[in-house]
């Protein structure tokens, strides 16, 4: 089923959205038959509940969907979508009860129930389609949903079908769709063009490392997105245990998220000059793997001591960030599934971000709840800089001690961004560990909608 709204239909089944304290009043306003039906079925309007109201011929004349209490809705998002998978296939319209302020979020949530990852087996998404409520920007919400589906598909695809070459193909497909240009530097050409750390991390894999460079737009302020594209992370010679390796197909979640964000920017034709950089590698194990104790010289000229080959994401990002910084874009963003420490700090549902710019932070904080895309600011705590300085080289890719792991990783990346006036780094998880309304277990976008909504304020659009 396409992830889009149904066309307006006079026969669409009306939906009445009710909170628990509204059920009795609604039932009392109906016929005796309907009131008796609601009472007999014990409909209490909890989140995820629904009740079809039969007509005289037995078809559904209307559907009640529970919206829960305000306290219950605060514990999640897309409350309306919780009931959608349980509705019969058909077309529906919101007839009453959904607050105007919630229309866009809940309509987006309904759209996202139309997603299912069906590449390897037949999986059916929810079959209940919604007519776009009056007063919302339906086209914009459909763009959000299409971008989210792109992110989920990329992350959900295993490394057997989503290595660096396949990720390049996905980027090329996006570029072609929106008339962007793309340039890709592959294999030993990375050394010739001075991307030594991208090459070092990916050289052990059969699928060559590469740097993907997409450009779109020729007017307006400049925005560069850098996404970590580690298509699978064994940990390298510091091999991960099996339990830690199981989800490493998602280690290109940063790349997927920046491609999803780029999708929205281009589809909405925002007046900016967009650039997307993705270092795409597989951190594999072979005789020519980079080693603990090696010292690598980055594109920027900073030397990096390798104290753990499983801290590879910051290495490939560093070369890409240094390259981006040479152009001094008006705003530079990196997104990466970078550290387990971020998960310990904020869990899987929040996307922590770092920035030295309070205006950027405030814009993101304002946009996140509006876009149902939660983010949370963590500090670039400069006193911790000493933790990433090993002495034998300029930088340490994996400081010991286990303290402040997400912050030290962010500080490491910041060393490669000097000329750009505004920089933000997102340390995302990119994975929903269990089913939730509109967000099935699996790959997920974290941060793109909040960033998109904040761009007009940050870039003065």
From TrEMBL:
Protein name stated in the entry: Leucyl aminopeptidase family protein
Pfam families: Peptidase_M17, Peptidase_M17_N_1
Domain Cytosol aminopeptidase: residue ranges: 308-315
Gene3D superfamilies (alphabetical): Leucine Aminopeptidase, subunit E, domain 1, Zn peptidases
Organism: Mesobacterium hydrothermale
MF annotations from Gene Ontology: aminopeptidase activity
Keywords assigned: Aminopeptidase, Hydrolase, Manganese, Protease
Superkingdom per UniProt: Bacteria
Family in the record: Belongs to the peptidase M17 family.
């Amino acid at each position: 089923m396409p992830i889009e709204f149904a066309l307006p239909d006079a026969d669409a089944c009306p939906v009445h959205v009710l909170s628990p304290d509204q059920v009795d009043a609604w039932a009392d306003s109906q016929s005796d038959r309907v009131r008796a039906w609601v009472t007999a079925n014990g409909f209490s309007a909890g989140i995820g509940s629904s009740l079809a109201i039969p007509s005289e011929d037995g078809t559904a004349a209307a559907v009640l969907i529970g919206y829960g209490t305000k306290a219950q809705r605060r514990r999640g998002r897309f409350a309306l979508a919780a009931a959608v998978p349980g509705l019969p296939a058909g077309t529906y319209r919101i007839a009453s009860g959904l607050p105007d302020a919630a229309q866009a979020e809940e309509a987006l949530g309904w759209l996202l129930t139309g997603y299912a990852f069906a590449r390897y087996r037949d999986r059916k998404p929810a079959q209940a389609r919604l007519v776009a409520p009056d007063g919302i920007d339906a086209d914009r919400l459909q763009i959000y949903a299409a971008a989210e589906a792109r992110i989920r598909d990329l992350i959900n695809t295993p490394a057997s079908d989503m290595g660096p070459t396949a990720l390049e193909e996905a980027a090329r497909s996006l570029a072609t769709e929106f008339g962007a240009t793309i340039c890709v530097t592959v294999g030993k050409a990375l050394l010739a063009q001075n991307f030594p750390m991208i090459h070092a991390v990916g050289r052990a894999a059969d699928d060559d490392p590469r740097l993907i460079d997409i450009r779109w737009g020729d007017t307006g302020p400049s925005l560069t997105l850098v996404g970590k594209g580690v298509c699978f992370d064994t940990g390298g010679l510091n091999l991960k245990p099996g339990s830690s390796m199981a989800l490493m197909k998602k280690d290109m979640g940063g790349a997927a998220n920046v491609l999803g964000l780029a999708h929205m920017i281009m589809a909405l034709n925002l007046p900016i000059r967009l650039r997307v950089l993705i270092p795409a590698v597989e951190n594999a194990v072979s005789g020519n793997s980079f080693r603990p104790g090696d010292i690598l010289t980055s594109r920027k000229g900073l030397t990096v001591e390798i104290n753990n080959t499983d801290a590879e994401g910051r290495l490939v990002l560093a070369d890409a960030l240094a390259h981006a910084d040479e152009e001094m874009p008006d705003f530079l963003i990196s997104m990466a599934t970078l550290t387990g420490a971020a998960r310990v700090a904020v869990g899987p549902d929040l996307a922590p971000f770092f920035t030295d710019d309070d205006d950027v932070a405030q814009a993101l904080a304002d946009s996140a709840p509006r876009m149902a895309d939660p983010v949370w600011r963590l500090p670039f705590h400069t006193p911790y800089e000493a933790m990433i300085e090993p002495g034998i080289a300029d930088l340490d890719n994996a400081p010991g001690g286990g303290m402040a792991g997400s912050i030290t990783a962010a500080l490491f990346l910041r060393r490669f961004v000097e000329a750009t006036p505004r920089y933000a780094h997102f340390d995302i998880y990119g994975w929903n560990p269990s089913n939730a309304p509109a967000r099935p277990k699996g790959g997920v976008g974290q941060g793109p909608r909040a960033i998109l909504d904040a761009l007009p304020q940050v870039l003065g659009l």
